[in-house]
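User: Second chain of the day. Same drill as before.
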Amino acid sequence: MTVPETMRAVRVTRHGGPEVLERARLPLPAPRQGEVLVRVAAAALNNTDLWTREGAYGRPADPRALSGWRGPVDFPRVQGADVAGRITAVGTGTPGNLLGRRVVIDPAIYDGTGPDAHPVGLMGSERDGGYAEYVTAPAERVHDMTASPLTDDQLAALPTAYGTALGMIERGRLREGETALVTGASGGVGIALTQIARARGARVIAVSSGPKADAVRAAGAHEVIDRTRDLTGQLRAAAPGGIDIALDVVAGGLVADGLPLLREGGRWVVAGALGGYDLTFDVRRLYLRNTRLIGSSMHTPAHFGLLMDLARRGDIRPPIAAVFPLEEAARAQEELARRHHIGKIVLRPGS
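Assistant: Same format as last time:
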């Protein structure tokens, strides 16, 4: 298969607003030993794209410091963690039978080689990502989705949002028949949590704004409560017996208010801080009822494999909110930041 010598890309040049995204013509990346070259069919946007561009992650010693996901960003950087496409070239030591395969890339950079390794970096942050016509990836991190009934846009929507959701559900050990609270339910991770928790046989109580309630119900929520009203009062009415597990991407004051609503042995799993990261809660609510507060960052290789199995069977179908050509990446990020949409926003480099 013939590939060009250069490619179109959009990269971030420094921390700042959408204006720091620049269009560029770059040399085609060459796959190194053990890597593959993927022609990008679709690249989905995530909040991590916004926060990496803004430098909003902070550092352990200085929560307000400009920083990427795991520290300083090596600018310029091609963003984009979520990629679906086809393998067009392979590096030395990589099986040639991968050529032409339709794949999804696991974007995580792990701290080890085992199935339970932790993510310590991310494509689009610690290495170049999918805001481009081509991207390289380790061969062991590409998953063959040739037989999946999902579209390229839907496949690209999976890695970060659905991987994060499945990581939360696996780490929280959600069981069939349990009552699960999902916060931020109309966002990418929230929709994924709702779909997967429902598929696991949980009773799902979702928190969203009124205008988006119907879409959240369509994703599988049994009940939707309005985040603009008395949340704890609504939760007590919706789950008078308490909550088994909270799948939370909002945090903030909701953690302190919600911990007392957990049943004996309940779990509160946090994978985001849209509502604030600096909070205070009564620690007695943890130990007196044997509850657990669990931090969850993305997924493990084992979690990602489970996610790809779901996608091959078509058991999950991410909703797509909008599609933009690659050159309009800045406008796409602006649309993402407005949070008026439901589902994923996708870039198509071929458009």
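Residues 240 and 261 are 9 Å apart (CA to CA).

User: Great, on to the next one.
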